[in-house]
Amino acid sequence: MAAKSSKPNRSRFMLSCFIFIFFLCVLASINEVRFNGILKFRRCVLSNESLPAHSSTSNEDDNLRILISVLTLPDQYLRRHFLRLVYGTQTVTEGAKVDVKFVFCNLTKEDQKTLVALEIMRYNDIIILNCTENMNKGKTSTFFRSLPEIFNETEGPYPPYHYVMKADDDTYVRLNSLVRSLRPLPREDLYYGFVIPCGSMDPFKHYMSGMGFVVSWDIVEWIHGSDIPRKHVEGPEDKVFGDWMRWARRGNNRYNAKWSMYNYPDPPSVCSHELWNDTIAVHLLKNQEKWVRTLTYFNHTDSLKPSKMYHIP
Fold first, then answer.
1. What is the total count of domains within the chain?
2. 196: which of 2, 65, 204, 282 lies 20 to 30 Å off by Cα?
């Protein structure tokens, strides 16, 4: 009798085990569904949280970013202050960002350490290169090679600037005209400016004048890593730069901005042109009279607002 009763007990035990295992499977399935739901919800929340930053970055990426680097000398305090007025009073069109920086080599005088420091504290628009001041012995090379290390922030858009313009401190650049000219152009392998010789309109003829030439950021990075600019530094800086482009076969997207860029009309020369509305840059503004005439022609101060505090006829 005992042997017979053990069979039903075994069957009930096996049935109980099966039901228990089935219950565990159901419970596991429910937990998996809940877990997946939580994961999906978390992804959704994180995605939504990251949208504003992503959106901001996208909007920032849409902006055309230009760095204008004015190569000058440490002692040119008055010239820098004047150029800050000239560029600071130009309103750049929406969708573009133009930064103007002043570039020179190491300070060599005690008074420079104080006066330049004051400028930096007030304006934060000076780049001091680790070089001895010179015009045609590598200053331009040092400048371009230094840029990727100076602007190597991990945060913010890449590249930090789409274009870098090297300009002289006797050049007047009309910022919005420059922006309009650059906006439709390629943002890679670009070499832009006033082609030399002055009588040529072929941008592949020789090189772009040092009055103010523009390159895209990928060329800046190439200069930083290439041996060509390191080994060939002496000579007229604009011609040397053109040699780099030719030897390395860079700057294949070339744009001749002549005659929107030109030398001041007095004295007349093959490189000069009368002032006219279709102007991006005017070069060789060597004295105050030429600057005043140029600024007056382009109605630079027309946006001055009336006030009881002054009367300017």
1. 1
2. 65
Residue 168 placed within a domain: yes
- For residue 21, the one-letter residue type is I
Mutual angle of helices 217-225 and 139-150, in 10-degree steps: 110
The answer to whether position 123 is within a domain reads: yes
CA-based torsion, 293, 295, 298, 301: positive or negative: negative
Strands 212-216 and 163-168: antiparallel
Q: What tokens were used for 242? A: 């053109």
Range of the domain at 72: 65-259
CATH of residue 90's domain is 3.90.550.50
Name residue 196's beta-bridge partners: 207
Q: Within its chain, how far is the Cα of 160 from the centroid? A: 4
| Domain membership flag for residue 265 | no
DSSP run (H or E) holding 173: strand 172-173
Going by the DSSP 8-state scheme, the letter that residue 248 receives in this structure is T
Dmax over Cα atoms in the chain, in whole Å?
A: 130
What single letter denotes the amino acid at residue 42? R
Beta bridge partner(s), residue 173: 281
What does the pLDDT profile of the chain (313 residues) look like in tens digits? 444 445 555 566 566 665 656 555 555 554 444 434 433 333 333 333 333 333 334 455 679 999 999 999 999 999 999 999 999 999 999 999 999 999 999 999 999 999 999 999 999 999 999 999 998 899 999 999 999 999 988 788 999 999 999 999 999 999 999 999 999 999 999 999 999 999 999 999 899 999 999 999 999 999 999 999 999 999 999 999 999 999 999 999 999 999 999 999 999 999 999 999 999 999 999 999 999 999 999 999 999 999 999 999 8
Burial class (CB in 10 A: 0-12, 13-18, 19+), 101: middle
Token couple for 201: 């309109």
Residue 306 lies in a domain: no
**Sole residue written with tokens 């304006």:** 123
